[in-house]
Amino acid sequence: MSENRKQARIATSLSLRLVAAALIWMLFLLGIGGAVLTLAFRQSAVQEFGHRLDAVLRTVIAAAEVGPDGSLIVKPSLGDPRFEQIFSGWYWQVAGPSGRLTRSRSLWDSTLPVHTDGDERREIEGPKGEPLLVVERDIEFPGLGGPVHMLIAGDMRELSDRTRSFNTLLFATIGLFALGMAIAIVIQVRFGLRPLRLLTDRLALVRSGKEKHLTGVYPREVAPLVETMNAILDHDAELIQRARTHVGNLAHGLKTPLAVLQTELRGNPDKAAIETQLRRMSRLIDHHLARAAAMAGSGRALGLQVDVRSTASDIASVLSRIHADKRIETMIDMDAHITFRGSREDLEEMLGNLMENAWKWARRRVLISARVAEGNLHIAVEDDGPGLSEEQTAAVMQRGAKLDETVPGWGLGLGIVADIAALNDGTIAIGRSDLGGVKAELSLPGSA
Amino acid sequence: MRILVVEDEPVLALRLQQTLEAADFAVDVAYDGEEGWHLGDTENYDAVVLDLGLPKLDGVSILRRWRDSGRAFPVLILTARSRWSEKMAGFQAGADDYLTKPFEMDEVVYRLRALIRRAAGHAQPELACGPLRLDTLAGRFSLNGIPIQLTAQEFRILSYLMHHAGKIVSRTELMEHVYDRHFDSDSNVLEVLIGRIRRKLDADLIHTVRGQGYRLADEAAP
């Protein structure tokens, strides 16, 4: 549970993530650096200790001489009291060719193990368990008839004191360095993420209604987000504006028939007059509700792509089912890969309304075609019906106009299509088709 | 011809029932989704009027369930919403036609007559069997061009036989498609009615197939 909370905190804070990642990596590198330095220091200290022992060994060699009886004599004192002190950690040991052993007083009656294969340095344990560095060598003395094996050992505990003080200094330095770096990382992250904090503040202003847009200059990485956000805000504002207009128009439109009904009720109610007003009100509600509903989710489908051909043929199959008696011949003339950049609902609404009109008016044939020109998508819906005169065309494009009261939907449908096309930054044009009837052409931007 | 109306608004349901009964249909009414689905699943209807916004079970779900279990009767959906994406959802679930509220009652009758006729496999609005003709748009029979006066029950029987002309229709099938579910079925009544229709037709068109049922055909013998 607490593990989850911790994960959640790291996941939710960008600064925490950045700081944590940088710190972990830095501590890892510093740890490796410290270990390498400690090792290197110890190695060089051992080397230097070995050189000192070497020098002592050379003194022992110089102090040794062959006695008159042909035996090797080493002068007991080397001028260093530690060779005299028992088990001081400092020892020498000489083995003659005959196996006779001479050793420092400090060694007393112990013997150090001998390695005869050449001169080398090695680390062994002394008689008291102390760590020793041993340097040994075979020397030829004239008249002895064989090599003499000379060995000198020094107490390495002297080294540990030195490495310990070095390590203390080293880790203190690394610690300070890490602290400095950590502070630098925190400052760097805060500086780097400042545009995001700015964005959060500006967003709060937008939410509280003090600003309509996200203001300010943002770095390249954040700018697209801000632009998209502003586009959505604009779009929402436009939707709200349109919704307000519709509500206003609806309310005003309803007031007249309501007033007529009121006066009608005061006198002798005329049934026909009341029915006319009711029909009028129902039409108004239809008109505004349909357009408002059609617009509600329109035009904000970012990054969506809809296949035009399959949408058109789906709608065509529905219309063929509804108007089965008319036996309309449907032609869908477009490449299979043409897509509309927007939501499926928008395309269905636009095509559905246009195609429904075409089916209503067509005698035998309906043609749906699409092409892409200069990055714009053009979709045309044509029929071979009676067509429209210029005055009718002008009238049909007017808000709420109804061309034919007995065939509902012409003007209303077109109004909805025009609204949705506008929300998708597109347009609709009505003209004459080569088939003889109406040609409704949608032009929509940014399609492939 | 028997119709199921699934509509939760009581006033609208009543008006639909009255209108359809006036047009000589036998009508069952369901006031919520579950009841509607159950009736459509267990009874035999020639067509269904289905509201999409229903309590307990919505119209699209009902339709999908019926189609999944193989119920093939034509369905006219009623919707208060006029968006195409919603209509598409209805049609993808298996609807055959739609009407947007508010609508004219007569429109429902016309649409249903056309749906029933098409579901029986007739492309033309006028059905003919020898001298007998049925104008499905107006809902009227004529014999040699002269209108025949039929009661509602007689009309339903002859209409069902006309839609399935040439095929043998069993008594049970005929009863199921002629009476609503509250009617106490009695095959004697059916025989009496068939007898009356035969007299009105004044022609040997309805043939009794022994042990199987009736057949409407313009020929001397079955």
Describe the structure.
The complex is a heterodimer of chains A (about 450) and B (about 220). With about 450 residues, chain A is an alpha+beta fold. Chain A has 10 helices and 14 strands. Chain A has helices at about 1-10, 15-65, 155-190, 195-205, 225-265, 270-295, 310-320, 345-360, 390-395, 410-425, and strands at about 65, 70-75, 90-95, 100-105, 120-125, 130-140, 145-155, 305, 330-335, 340, 365-375, 375-385, 425-430, 440-445. In chain A, the strands form 4 sheets. A 5-stranded antiparallel sheet of chain A has the order 4-3-7-6-5. A 5-stranded mixed sheet of chain A has the order 9-11-12-14-13. In chain A, β3 and β4 (about 100-105) form a beta hairpin. In chain A, α6 packs parallel to α10 and α8 (about 345-360) runs antiparallel to α10. The radius of gyration of chain A is 50 Å and the shape is rod-shaped. With about 220 residues, chain B is of the alpha/beta class. Chain B has 2 domains: about 1-120, Rossmann fold, CATH 3.40.50.2300; about 125-215, Orthogonal Bundle (Arc Repressor Mutant, subunit A), CATH 1.10.10.10. In chain B, about 40% of the residues lie in helices and about 20% in strands. A 5-stranded parallel sheet of chain B has the order 2-1-3-4-5, with helices on both faces. Chain B has a 4-stranded antiparallel sheet with strand order 6-7-8-9, covered by helices on one side. Chain B has a 3-stranded antiparallel sheet with strand order 10-12-11. In chain B, α1 links the parallel β1 (about 1-5) and β2 (about 25-30). In chain B, α1 (about 10-20) packs across α5, α2 packs parallel to α3 (about 60-70) and α6 (about 150-165) packs across α7. The longest helix of chain B has 15 residues, at about 105-120. The radius of gyration of chain B is 18 Å and the shape is globular. The model of chain B has no long low-confidence stretch (mean pLDDT about 85). The interface of A and B includes residues 294 and 349 of A.
